[in-house]
Amino acid sequence: MTFESLGLKKELLKAVEEKGYTTPSPIQEKAIPVILEGNDVLASAQTGTGKTAGFTLPILQIITDTKNPKFRPIRALILTPTRELAAQIYDNIKDYSKYVNIKSAVIFGGVNPKKQISTIKNGVDILVATPGRLLDLHDQKALSLKRIDILILDEADRMLDMGFVRDIKKIIALLPSKRQNLLFSATFSKEIKALAKGILSNPVLVEAAPENTTAEMVTQKIYRTPKSRKAAMVIQLISDGNWNQVLIFTRTKHGANRLVEKLQKNDISSAAIHGNKSQGARTKALKEFKENTIRVLVATDIAARGLDIPLLPQVINYELPNIPEDYVHRIGRTGRAGASGEAISLVANEELEYVKNIEKLLKQKLKIAELEGFDLTPTEPSQPESTSKSSSKNKKPSSGNQTKRNFRNKKGSKNNEENKAAPIRNNRKKSKRRPNKGPRNIT
């Protein structure tokens, strides 16, 4: 099978050839002809399978063949969950549209919208957007969605995970009822199927890999270690292996920042990318990582879907995600486009339940590995007696101290009960004065 056999125009074939692609991937082979025929599509493909080209190439051809030369209303809208993914798709569109007369733009939050508004006013055929910024600019009457012919929801499952379902429904209400719809998702959960049912009309189901599977070229293994030793283990793994490009995932923004500090203290160049970073800082960190200026990029799951790094050799789960599907997305950053990769997870005792859920999803056992200087199944240091009553009950005191302990306990039992109650009253008073700041965002 060749790209030419898929029915693509020679201008697009030339751009594809310049990108170095000779044979279409399974998702491209299955999706491109169906999209060119004008069908709605419900597509499942794991990350790194070439799905962006799978929908970008056919919509470029459709718009080129039906474009009105006098003006450029937005005719194709691509919605994505993250800024990084939006920027990545836009870059691909620019590469593939080099030899056709198509204008594209990307809009997302975190940057001044003035330049984005100016670009749209000059005419745009294809718009890549995150939901929030798209609604903001629509409310400002900076863009119109009345001429949309094709709607693409990319990483739809991630958009639902991030709470965009209400925004998506608002956007769909602004679009023409007659249009072509393409929904791409790494997983087909009940929520995704419900969303698809409300958007797609007689869709063609396209699957490039079994649902919720990981790339075959990725070697997966776990190291058992307490939380307190994870940073030391990461440093040793990177140093011993002389790794020069490592993507590390943490669950929290503060955890990402702390790990970067520890890595830098050990002369391992690194940067963090998460929701608290400005868009400029995120773009700079990703650029330096791709160019090998820094060795390590530490990210939260907000960036898991938007990182396209060719031939990324190692991914480390510094902390396992509590949603097993996120594990699939994280390790999908390596082993892309047929290249081999390694996914390592550092597992503390309290994360063993996450391991079970991941293994259940993957229907396979994760290999346990050992690292010299670290125990295979270490336990966390025991807590002080004042914070761990259960452990102190199990400890047998020496005979010499038993009498003294019993005497102190009896003598102070009344005072102890009073002391236990006092902090509670104090905490209640303080809690009344504490302003309600709402739930913390830990992504």
Low-confidence stretches: 378-434, 436-443
Radius of gyration: 26 Å
Series of secondary-structure elements, N-terminal to C-terminal: HHEHEHEHEHEHHEHEEHEHEHEEHEHEHH
CATH topology type of the largest domain: Rossmann fold
Helix amount, in percent? 40-55%
- Which CATH top level class of the largest domain fits? Alpha Beta
CATH superfamily of the largest domain: P-loop containing nucleotide triphosphate hydrolases
How many structural units, i.e. domains? Answer: 2
The fraction of residues assigned to DSSP E strands is: 5-15%
Largest sheet, described in full? 7 strands, parallel
Give, in spatial order, the strands making up the sheet with the most strands: 3-4-2-5-6-1-7
**Strands, total number:** 14
Mean pLDDT: 82
Identify the CATH architecture of the largest domain: 3-Layer(aba) Sandwich
- Tally of alpha and pi helices: 16
Q: Output the structural class.
A: alpha/beta
Shape: globular
Assembly state (oligomeric): single chain
Terminal Cα span: 42 Å
Topology:
Elements: H1 10-18, H2 26-36, E1 41-44, H3 51-66, E2 76-79, H4 83-96, E3 104-107, H5 114-121, E4 126-129, H6 131-139, E5 150-153, H7 156-161, H8 165-174, E6 180-185, H9 190-199, E7 204-207, E8 218-224, H10 230-241, E9 246-249, H11 253-265, E10 270-273, H12 279-290, E11 296-299, E12 314-317, H13 324-331, E13 341-347, H14 352-362, E14 367-369, H15 389-394, H16 399-433
Parallel strand pairs: 1-6, 1-7, 2-4, 2-5, 3-4, 5-6, 8-13, 8-14, 9-11, 9-12, 10-11, 12-13
Helix pairs in contact: 2-3, 3-4, 6-8
